[in-house]
Amino acid sequence: MATNTRERIVTTTAELFRRQGYNGTGLKQIVAGAAAPFGSVYHFFPGGKEQLGAEVIHVGGRFYQELVEAVWDAAPDAVSGVADVFAGAAETLRQTDYADACPIATVALEVASTNEVLRVATAEVFAAWIESAVERLSAAGIGRAKARELAIAIIALLEGAFVLSRATRTTEALEAAGATAVARVRDAILQGEGRAKP
Amino acid sequence: MATNTRERIVTTTAELFRRQGYNGTGLKQIVAGAAAPFGSVYHFFPGGKEQLGAEVIHVGGRFYQELVEAVWDAAPDAVSGVADVFAGAAETLRQTDYADACPIATVALEVASTNEVLRVATAEVFAAWIESAVERLSAAGIGRAKARELAIAIIALLEGAFVLSRATRTTEALEAAGATAVARVRDAILQGEGRAKP
DNA sequence: GTCTATAGAAGGATAGAC
DNA sequence: GTCTATCCTTCTATAGAC
Known about the structure:
The structure is a homodimer.
Chain A: H1 5-20, H2 27-34, H3 38-44, H4 48-74, H5 78-95, H6 105-111, H7 116-139, H8 144-168, H9 172-192
Chain A binds a DNA duplex through helix 3.
């Protein structure tokens, strides 16, 4: 999988960030997990922990986006696509002992007011996620402005549900959030077709 | 305001946790901000940083709950109550340079997989918030099961919008999340009255 | 019970051998 | 360019003077 040293460092860091956050993860722990010599970090990332962090945010964000897109696009329509995304996230959370949720949310909150470089990196990832969701909702017949509002709400529901689910160690929040997201998407599509809700 | 040393330590820690998280905040920074001697931390909190953290989570969680309840209860009905909560959160975020959002979300994500004592503390806070919202939604005529699903969704929307808003330094996410929360509460109340949506 | 000094471990970062 | 040894700072925690 991770064949070279640089790759191993990035994937190991991504996994540690997801579970412990940025400040909770040390460079020594990273090189130990990646089975890499300490100096390799500064060889591949002269900017140190911050540069490594920025790359991990971008790579991790893109990877997760592609994962969600694959689940969404495999569904027959947008409503079941959204439902599948939340159901898949709940299943992953259960299987990983409530560890693997959003790869960048923990870091995003940690650095939002303390590190501008990393804050911008997380903002770029979220912007890409929003654009991805807007495209899919637009393709489902929802107007551009409404699609953007919905896309943001869906991502907020997912992120917030991750916070609640990881804290309480139940998937109830992901299920409640998923039901809400599905209902809103369904309503928006029906309204776009000029039909009222039953 | 904070008249004694112990109180100053707790309020200072709460503020630092909100902006930097648990791992990003050192005890030395806490005593410096609280103008307290270092030894006072271990005098009042023999369990060290963990015990202090648990108390800050509980106190901060209760404080924020009372703040939100005050805003919600000042509104004429549940729909505008929810709208006011999101609008107020957005205003606070703008006024504090996107620093003061949820007092425990950052810590909750940091400790969810690394510190069971603090994880339980955050879970207890979220449980209290959910119960508070369920009461208010039930009082608005929404059935208990639906009220719980909605309460969780509203809190998830708020938490997720905080993540997005702090990262992007805009309040667009809070507005989109607020609109979604309001729409869902309105629908639930109308359905409870046996009326369809227009 | 207020406060200082310091221990002992872990943090990020650097220099330089090979 | 792979790897080791080490520097300096910061961290949590403790001991003990006052």
